[in-house]
Amino acid sequence: MDPALQRTLELLLIVGIGLLLQKRLAGRQQLEGIKLIILNVALPATIFLALLKVELKPGLLLLPGLALAFNLAMFLAVRYALPLFAPRHGAPQRRTLALMLPSLAPGLSCYPFIMAYMDESSLALAALADVGNKFFGLILLYLLAMHWYHQGGRPTDRKAPVAKKLRGLFLSLVREPINLVIGTAIILLIAGLNLESLPGFIAAAINRFSVMMVALVLLFIGMAVRVSLSDLRTIALLLSWRSGLALLFSSLMLLLLPALTPALALLVIVFPQSSCSFWPYAHMHLVSEREKAETRTQPTFDNGFAVNLLACSLPFSSGMILLLFNFSETLAHTWVLATAGLTLVALSLLPRIWQVALRKLRSAIPENVMP
């Protein structure tokens, strides 16, 4: 059997076991416990080990810059281009999409497959790229969510001390384990230290935590898939549109940076396909709690729609990343990526184009001819 196919079947088998385990879940709290272990133990350990094996070079600063460029480009597309094709979304949904669609969650959707199909050095590069994405998701989107929240509030609420907001933001960044290990690893690398510089028992313990990363995340994907049928069609079209734009962005980067190594080129392709991040939802949840305390009648965001988007995004992105890894030799060309991206965007817009064409056709036919 082909090694790539065997690896894919292995990963799908673990996801399938996760699907079977859904019936044994007593409640969402058990699923949150698994997610807690992934995000606070297994993933930080994996990233820490991978980063300490990287040779720090100034050129690697390009990676977080590329990730941030994708975030900003997607934000502008969602904010200004998507309403032209999806005008039915109300203001809360448009704000929700503006926060959710540009964000990336490589930890749950991309890292496990990078570990399975590539090597630890590639995972370390992905973790470095995630620094730019973290800056966008944790800082810029938080500030934007608070800006929209205060826009809809009472005039006195808009004058909250800036120092208090920044202090709360800094504390939320420091409390995030992934940010702590990335910062610690970068400091150690700057100081000229590596994994061998750590005491043996510490390195061994971190390595044991890292080993369980892939299996836990794939089980979590299978256990977490619960799609709401009410928004399934709309969300599927939105995710297709997002994935198509990500492929177009990757093709542009490969065109502008032809000297990339094959591993870096593949990383540029798969990283933007990561699922939507949980952090924008956390920002929206914070806003929602404040609005409940103020008994506001007009919510800033649509939290229910955000939850459905998160639920669908993880399996969709995982499937896209699996597809890209298995056909990497065919797809890792600028024109192929651009064609695939344009195809996905066109397919996602077909219902809207059909509605517009049908409306024009009906308006062109005289009323006395209409049945």
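(the above was protein one; protein two follows)
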Amino acid sequence: MIKRNVILNNKTGLHARPAALFVKEANKYISDIYVESKGTRVDGKSIIGVMSLGAFHGEEITLIAKGEDEEEAIESLTNLIEYGLDAIDE
């Protein structure tokens, strides 16, 4: 299992389109993916779960991956959070 803390630096956080993009990316992996925010853990492959976190710009979230491709999943999802969601907000 791998855990990584990341800061949401896109304007809207994990809402609507950014959440959908995150879930789409998470579903590419066999590993179980979870997202934690403010003491709540949700399934990172569930759009309802990710959106229910109410994670906003500037907040820290924890990405968790457990499975055979966990390293690749964490790297990809971290890159998406850090660099790939900004274009959606524009």
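Reviewer note on protein two: The mean pLDDT is 92.
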